[in-house]
Amino acid sequence: MKRRVHHVQDQSPRLALNAGSAVIATTVAASAFATEPRRGDREPSRDLRALIKAHKATYAAFGKAIHEVDGSNRGHDRASRAEERALLAVCAYPAVREGDRRAKARYLLKIEARGELDLAEHTQALLRPTMWRE
């Protein structure tokens, strides 16, 4: 009986090493799988594409309102507010998937390059979706 116990004691370090290796291998494999976006996650979602499309349309309408000759500030103000709401919607969109994060960042970098992400509301809308809900 002692020999049997001794044999188990001799094997336990090998078993622990094998078990530890299995845990590490499983963790590495799971991490690699988790960081590699699924094929469908590489493209922006329909929702984000719609928000970007809406912003582009309101931005074009705002540009047109500015260049109208009638001199009406009313149309200009309305177009400005619509464009601002559309841009804030893009900023506030919680881009969770890889494709959404890339598309949102790429689009907003273009907007920022034009100098149009200049309001505190833009920054707040960008940061709010990244916070944990309590």
Give the SSE string. Answer: HHHHH
**Major beta-sheet overview:** none
Strand content: under 5%
Number of strands: 0
Summed up:
By secondary structure, the chain is mainly α.
What does this structure look like?
- The protein has 134 residues and is mainly alpha-helical.
- The chain is built from five helices and no strands.
- It has helices at residues 2-35, 46-67, 73-92, 98-113, 120-127.
- α2 packs antiparallel against α3 (73-92).
- The longest helix is centred in the first third of the chain and has 34 residues, at 2-35.
- It is elongated and about 50 Å long.
- It starts with a helix and ends in a 7-residue tail after the last helix.
Task: Write out key terms for the chains shown.
134 residues; mainly alpha; 5 helices; 75% helix; 0% strand; elongated; disordered N terminus
In terms of topology, how is this protein built?
Blueprint (H helix, E strand, L loop, with lengths): L1 H34 L10 H22 L5 H20 L5 H16 L6 H8 L7
